[in-house]
Write a structure and sequence with these properties.
Elements (H helix, E strand, L loop, with lengths): L1 E5 L3 H13 L3 E5 L2 H10 L4 E5 L7 H15 L6 E5 L4 H10 L3 E4 L4 H33 L9 H18 L3 E8 L2 H8 L1 H24 L7 E6 L2 E7 L3 H16 L16 E8 L6 H17 L5 E5 L11
Parallel strand pairs: 1-2, 1-3, 3-4, 4-5, 9-10
Antiparallel strand pairs: 6-8, 6-9, 7-8
């Protein structure tokens, strides 16, 4: 169990650390509330032992800020126990209101301290199992059941967040819309089971290209999602025009190299895909217009022979409501 000990008195911190280490616990010491918050954000502990009276920031304020941070990050509750030389009613009420869970006297005996830590260890184990279960549920809720890519609902939420960040930072933003060529004919000819297998392989190919681009730092936070049916989307925040083009052509090439037979895909004989992309640097643009522009370029790619990418960089105009 990892314990964050927040205590400004060095001698007491040394003694408590030694006692906790003897029980087999890992202890990190912070000398005041401000340092404790920084430590918490860097490495979330299983338990916080918090002094009340400290310079720079006291325990009450630090606890309130930690609880606020947990809420903003949607994290599970981290147990916080106050260390006190005076368990006055006023301190108890203030501590609980700030978000504390319990009190411990600084003069606590060895057996009582050991028993308290054993109880906290059980709670930490339970929290860990809960965190793993919640993460699995989150993954299931955000992923498309067939392809494993992000689903449309998660894509919309993440795109909105990325778009807001791009507007604040003045960064470029791009959308790639991808469609498997003649996929209805593929389903009709090979059957829906084969169609599902095709979708899975294409999704994996897209994911490999996107993951490689992120790993090489060509993009920042690029991700792929199943848009619907045989359509996919790749969201590319803060990417240069050249990177968008490379990404689009790499996806088309990787899908083609799957070499999935498709007799009804005229001129090619294998499964191919078309991509339409739009990139904008206009902070006042609307994300819905960016999707529409990318979709229009996708239709252009289809009309120009499929198995290709059509991209443009355009100032996507803000929609203006007509005058009343």
């Amino acid at each position: 169990m990892k314990i964050l000990l927040v205590e400004d008195t060095r001698a007491l911190a040394v003694v408590l650390t030694a006692r906790l280490n003897s029980f087999g616990y890992e202890v990190l010491v912070a000398e005041n509330g401000k340092v404790a918050i920084e430590c918490f954000k860097q490495d979330v502990p299983d338990l916080i032992l918090m002094d009340i009276e400290m310079p720079v920031m006291n325990g009450f304020e630090a606890t309130s800020r930690i609880r606020a941070y947990e809420t903003s990050q949607q994290w599970a509750w981290t147990p916080i126990i106050f260390l006190t030389a005076s368990d006055s009613p006023d301190n108890l009420v203030t501590a609980i209101e700030a978000g504390a869970d319990d009190f411990l006297s600084k003069s606590i005996t060895e057996p009582v301290l050991s028993a308290k830590m054993k109880a906290m260890t059980r709670i930490a184990a339970l929290r860990q199992r809960l965190s793993v279960a919640n993460q699995k549920l989150y993954e299931q809720a955000s992923r498309d059941g067939l392809t494993g890519l992000f689903n449309r609902r998660h894509m919309d939420a993440q795109t909105d967040l990325a778009w807001e960040n791009a507007q604040r930072g003045g960064h470029p933003f791009a959308i790639l819309m991808l469609d498997i060529d003649n996929f209805k004919k593929y389903n009709d000819h090979y059957g829906h089971q084969a169609g599902d297998d095709c979708l899975k392989q294409v999704a994996q190919a897209i994911a490999r290209v996107v993951d490689a681009a992120n790993a090489q730092s060509l993009t920042q936070g690029c991700f792929a999602a199943r848009y619907g049916g045989e359509e996919f989307a790749v969201v590319v925040p803060a990417a240069s025009e050249g990177v968008c083009e490379r990404l689009a052509h790499a996806i088309i090439k990787t899908i083609r190299e799957l070499n999935i037979a498709h007799e009804k895909n005229a001129d090619w004989g294998i499964v191919t895909a078309s991509i339409g992309g739009c990139r904008t640097t206009v902070a006042e643009a609307q994300i819905s217009n960016l999707f529409r522009s990318a979709d229009a370029k996708l239709y252009q790619a289809k009309e120009n022979g499929r198995n290709r990418a059509e991209l443009n960089q355009t100032p996507v105009a803000r929609q203006v409501s007509p005058a009343a």
